[in-house]
Design goal:
The chain is α+β, with helices and mostly antiparallel strands and about 150 residues long. The chain folds into two domains: about 90 residues, no CATH class; about 60 residues, no CATH class. The protein contains two helices and eleven strands, in the order E-E-H-E-E-E-E-E-H-E-E-E-E. A five-stranded mixed β-sheet has the order 2-1-3-6-5. Strand 10 and strand 11 form a beta hairpin. It starts with a strand and ends with a strand. About 10% of the residues are buried.
């Protein structure tokens, strides 16, 4: 699915991308094999990146472009002669990182108040059992009293 974005005389984007079908309806006599109509540029969608454990989208970038998402961090930029989505991320501040870590610990404690043998792994921002869960394809549940994994439906 090809997209185009309307641009001004300086190739600054106007509005949001349009489907090729819609642009073709606006310019029925234009030969799209020769490129975009005057005042338009090709646009390529880029999937958002997978964020690292302590990474967030940069909320200072995006404005009204990112209204369709739960966050900002998106801009439209010309890359190699084509407009593309450009995703902006940043590392969490020390305060944000600590807040996330505390939330993970609090959520775990609320769900499993008796599982005191588990420890927090700062690198992954996850609670981990003292013994890794078996990786044999079966489903297990943790038994805190015996400090073992118990096969579910055994």
């Amino acid at each position: 699915m090809k997209l185009y974005i309307k641009v001004d005389e300086n190739n600054v984007h106007i509005e949001h991308p349009h489907f090729e079908k819609n642009v073709r309806e606006l310019y029925p006599d234009h030969d799209f094999d020769e490129g975009a109509p005057s005042g338009w540029m090709e646009f390529v969608r880029v999937e958002p990146p997978q964020l690292g454990v302590y990474e967030v989208f940069d909320e200072t970038i995006g404005g009204n472009i990112a209204l369709a998402f739960e966050h900002n961090g998106l801009s439209y930029e010309i890359v190699d002669g084509v407009y593309k989505d450009v995703w902006h991320t940043r590392n969490m501040t020390t305060e944000e990182k600590l807040e996330k870590q505390n939330a993970v610990k609090a959520d775990f404690s609320a769900l499993h108040p008796t599982w005191t043998s588990w420890t927090f792994n700062e690198e992954t921002c996850r609670m981990e059992p003292p013994i890794p869960v078996p990786s044999d394809g079966n489903v297990y549940i943790w038994n805190e009293e015996n400090q073992t994994w118990v096969l579910l439906n055994a």
